[in-house]
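Class, discuss our next protein.
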Amino acid sequence: MSAAYAVGPLVTAFVSLKLRVEIILSYHFALLLLGVGILLFGQNDRGALYAGSAVLGLGYSACIPSINAFINEHFKLTNSVSAVYSFASGIAAMATPLIISPFLQDHPAILIFLTGSLVLISLGLFTVLRLWLIFFK
């Protein structure tokens, strides 16, 4: 996962020369859904776990820069808005282990379900925002 996460921004840097940020975000969401699907259906296969983790790493690799570029393209990002965004992201990242750790021993698949749920929520919000920008801007 870490190798794919490290190589992903390099690949995305070259891809971003030809594609718009909306398309980059779309294929990263597709990679995330594919990775969650591989992890979900290949829970008992070591190769599937490695492949799913690599696909997830590749999918997550350029999400934050792409989301920042997308938001900055359509909205004005001030320092205070960026600070609140960074703070909220940090709090969410710190709270996640505290929330799911009591359940991991008995239900280890909760991590896959949480990842899939968050990817679907993010994809839904991106779709709503994209449609709002198309129809109301």
